């Protein structure tokens, strides 16, 4: 798998929108409800890149197999931290190490940028918990009814951190 940083969203926007729609349709809690319209998906990707956001994609055979974002804090006293966000794997690429490789790549990019603390949240009962724990993330809290899944059911959220000094 090749991992690339996306700095021009136009090149990948349609494929990223399709990936986003498919993971939401599969039930992922990604801050959007099913059905996710083309317009909603395209609008999301139109607004994702900024000075505080780095976007990485994983490519297998020139197709996007997954994506992850690093959100850097814009707070003066939070310049040492970043959030792992929107880690998504295409349905056909799951269980092939794509998410792990993207997560590790994002961590290395954050470390290279001088970040020492990573944060993330995920569904309490979701499969991503095993990945995050196996990569050294520490569970520091749970919030009941934190977000809705793609079909409107309220779910608890788990919150993790990792020191990457």
UniProtKB/TrEMBL annotation:
Domain of life according to the entry: Bacteria
Record-linked InterPro entries: Acyl_CoA_acyltransferase, Bact_Acetyltransf, GNAT_dom
Parts of the chain that traverse the membrane: none
UniProt entry tagged with the keyword Acyltransferase: yes
Gene3D superfamilies (alphabetical): 3.40.630.30
Any coiled-coil regions, as ranges: none
Any one GO MF annotation of this record: acyltransferase activity, transferring groups other than amino-acyl groups
Swiss-Prot/TrEMBL keywords: Acyltransferase, Transferase
Residues annotated as domain N-acetyltransferase: 1-160
Keyword presence, Transferase: yes
PANTHER family on file: AMINOALKYLPHOSPHONATE N-ACETYLTRANSFERASE-RELATED (PTHR43877:SF2), AMINOALKYLPHOSPHONATE N-ACETYLTRANSFERASE-RELATED-RELATED (PTHR43877)
Protein name per the record: N-acetyltransferase domain-containing protein
Naturally occurring in which organism (per UniProt): Terribacillus halophilus
């Amino acid at each position: 798998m090749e991992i690339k940083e996306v700095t021009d969203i136009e090149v990948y926007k349609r494929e990223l929108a399709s990936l986003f729609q498919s993971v939401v349709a599969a039930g992922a809690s990604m801050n959007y409800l099913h059905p996710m319209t083309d317009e909603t998906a395209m609008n999301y990707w139109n607004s994702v890149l900024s000075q505080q956001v780095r976007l990485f994609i994983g490519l297998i055979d020139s197709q996007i197999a997954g994506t992850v974002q690093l959100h850097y804090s814009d707070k003066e006293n939070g310049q040492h931290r970043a959030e792992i966000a929107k880690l998504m794997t295409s349905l056909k690429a799951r269980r092939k190490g794509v998410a792990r490789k993207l997560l590790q790549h994002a961590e290395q990019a954050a470390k290279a940028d001088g970040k020492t603390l990573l944060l993330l949240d995920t569904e309490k009962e979701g499969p991503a918990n095993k990945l995050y724990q196996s990569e050294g993330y520490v569970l520091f809290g749970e919030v009941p009814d934190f977000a809705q899944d793609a079909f409107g059911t309220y779910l608890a959220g788990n919150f993790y951190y990792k020191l990457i000094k």
